[in-house]
Specification:
single chain, 329 residues, alpha/beta, Glucose Oxidase, domain 1, 3 domains, seven-stranded mixed sheet, 10% strand, globular
Length: 329
């Protein structure tokens, strides 16, 4: 935990402000396709192209979790998801037209000659974009260490995953003592889970106390890419949808992945989706960068996107930043 706190202090007070400044300076040159070799989706593509072995892929991204939560399993704990994502990309390569092929890597891309100032700006943007990915890997490594310690403590104390639902101070004290009142701890964990389920159903207002009504959120944000149609699938469904499905059947209805926020490891679930819609984020954040890398449209900063009707047929217009419901059945 002490190492975790030290890392977060460096990230929050030193590195994050530098990345933010580079983003502002680079502007549109920040994070073009192929500029983020550390990104999970870029490494998945490298594996699909045969440039990276599955063993090395697992070693590089295995400590990432789908959520910034020590209770969330790491990719190393669910390696089948990684292998299936790589297979979906390979299948996508086999059926893709030249226009749909993955973007070339930044080091092999050919572009028109640029002025020294513009070239320096692009180099700064690409370096900052990759650093913004690397910091997530470092953060995930710290989180994974805390998770491993809690998993081990849960096993010793016969609490299992309930260890994640009791106060951290209680977990640390019990682990140090080597004993805990199991019945009391399980009751405490059950109450915490129930509170979490209740809170998960809350829909918070877009603005509070400013006296100005929030703009209609049915459903728009900012986006990139073209226009596609598909069926809404929330991210919790995607893992089940892809289970045992390494190929993308031609007859499968295109999937529009709807998420509260995009984390790096979600690339594993989003591979194969026709579009990404996220409640949070901007055009320089993970969601939009991931969509560009995967070659699909996105609409990010789409407030209340999680209220899109389940399995509805929608049209995602990346250029306009709009999601339109075509059929709710």
């Amino acid at each position: 935990m002490e190492a975790y706190v030290r890392l977060v202090r460096v990230w929050a007070h030193e590195m994050s402000p530098l990345v933010s400044a580079a983003r502002r300076a680079a502007g549109p040159a920040f994070a073009p396709p192929g500029a983020r070799p550390a990104a999970v989706e870029a490494r998945l593509w490298a594996c699909a192209r045969g440039e990276l072995s599955e063993r090395d892929l697992l070693a590089q991204v295995g400590e990432l979790s789908a959520a910034w939560d020590v209770a969330a399993p790491t990719l190393a704990e669910t390696p089948g998801h990684l292998a299936a994502a790589v297979e979906r990309l390979r299948a996508q390569q086999r059926v893709a037209s030249p226009a749909q092929a993955p973007a070339p890597r930044a080091d092999t891309a050919t572009t028109a000659p640029a002025s020294p100032a513009r070239a320096a700006q692009a180099e700064l943007g690409q370096a900052a974009a990759d650093l913004a990915e690397l910091d997530d890997h470092w953060f995930a490594r710290a989180q994974a260490r805390v998770r491993r310690a809690l998993v081990a403590a849960g096993a010793r104390l016969e609490l299992g995953d309930d260890i994640f639902w009791i106060p951290l101070e209680d977990a640390v004290t019990a682990a140090a003592a080597g004993a805990v009142n199991v019945d009391s701890a399980r009751a405490q964990a059950g109450a915490a889970r129930a509170a979490h389920r209740r809170a998960s159903a809350w829909r918070m207002p877009a603005s509070v106390g400013c006296g100005v009504p929030a703009a209609s959120a049915r459903w728009h944000g900012v986006g990139c890419g073209g226009v596609v149609r598909g069926r809404v699938r929330q991210v919790s469904e995607l893992w089940r949808l892809w289970d045992g499905t390494s190929m993308l059947p031609a007859a499968m209805t295109p999937v529009v992945a709807v998420v509260p926020a995009v984390t790096p490891a979600l690339a594993v679930a989003l591979v194969g989706a026709a579009a990404i819609v996220s409640e949070t984020g901007g055009l320089l954040d993970h969601g939009a960068a991931m969509a560009r890398e995967l070659g699909i449209p996105c609409v990010v900063g789409c407030t209340d996107a999680m209220s899109l009707p389940p399995h509805a047929l929608v049209e995602v217009d990346g250029e306009a930043g709009v999601v339109r419901v075509l059929d709710e059945s």
